[in-house]
Design brief:
With 287 residues, the chain is an alpha/beta fold. The chain contains 13 helices and 12 strands. The strands form 2 sheets. Strands 3-2-1-4-10-6-11-9 form an 8-stranded mixed beta sheet, sandwiched between helices. Helix 6 runs parallel beside helix 11. It starts with a helix and ends with a helix.
Length: 287
């Protein structure tokens, strides 16, 4: 890919990779080291630091690259807020949200740039694999379960949602047209920790969407920061978000998650036995 092929007429990059991070400097170092190997003139990286108390700033600045920009916030705003700041700070036509501890597979950036340049979708979902970095074992070899790209025209958002909804709770799978993101009501979904899904499916996608069949990202499955908040996210926030998406047919939403999963006593007992919540969590989320 060359600058002439992909740079916009105003000289801005085609793609901004936005990373939100807090207090994970050494994991971030590994992620950035992987990313810089694939950067081209048409890609920038924006790191939004939610007021880390560690050496995150030194890690970012150690790369000494003009195409990696650092934005330190005065306080941690939460994942929805901090990624939105990344969008506001970015200059690319598209934004690829990415996590501070995951990796690109070889050729991932080139493959994404090629699809954006050729197809110009509103949304690109990047398939991935799940990996245990401690044992270097692949735990999931294809999250989406298909091997060739799928294309969704405007009006096929329900099919698109059914295909990708469970996977794109992982924000690192999402590439979105920046202008579309900024046109939609971020505040309506902020705080759910899944605001990106609300924004993508708030209304139709005029230019459609693509999901890649080939996995291009590698997720660390056993390094999840959400564990302490998992009960609220999956039992309250996730169903509330899905059921707020009025553009999707009721049966599609029901197929993804029931409206009130916390009414399922058997499920509550299993989650309690596995330590996913305690009585204070029950009082706060359910009672």
């Amino acid at each position: 890919m060359t600058r002439e092929a992909n740079r916009q007429n105003d000289g801005r990059p085609l793609l901004s990779i936005c990373i939100a991070t807090v207090d994970r400097a050494e994991l971030l170092r590994q992620t950035l080291a992987c990313i810089v190997k694939q950067l081209t003139d048409d890609v920038e990286v924006v790191v939004v630091d939610g007021a880390s108390g560690d050496h995150t700033e030194q890690v970012v600045r150690s790369f000494e690259r003009r195409d990696i920009r650092y934005c330190r916030l005065p306080r941690k705003g939460g994942v929805d807020h901090d990624f939105h700041v990344g969008v506001l700070q970015s200059e690319g036509e598209y934004v690829w949200f990415f996590c501070d501890d995951d990796f690109f597979e070889d050729g991932a950036v080139e493959a994404v740039l090629e699809r954006l340049q050729r197809e110009s979708p509103d949304v690109l979902v990047v398939n991935g694999i799940g990996w245990d970095d401690q044992s270097d074992v692949i735990l999931k070899d294809n999250f989406l379960g298909f091997t060739t790209d799928r294309h969704y025209s405007s009006g096929q958002e329900a099919v698109f949602f059914q295909d990708v909804a469970a996977y794109i709770t992982y924000i690192g799978a999402v590439v979105v047209r920046r202008s579309l993101w900024l046109q939609r009501p971020h505040d309506q979904y902020a705080g759910s920790e899944l605001a990106h899904i609300g924004i993508l499916f708030h209304a139709t996608l005029p230019r459609g969407a693509i999901a890649t069949g080939k996995p291009l990202v590698r997720l660390r499955l056993l390094n999840n920061q959400w564990t302490a908040r998992a009960f609220r996210i999956w039992m309250v926030n996730w169903p509330s978000l899905v059921w707020s998406l009025g553009m999707l047919p009721r049966e599609v939403r029901q197929a993804i998650v029931s409206r009130r999963p916390w009414r399922n006593l058997g499920k509550l007992l299993v989650l309690r036995a596995s330590g996913d919540y305690d009585w204070s969590g029950f009082d706060a989320c359910i009672r």
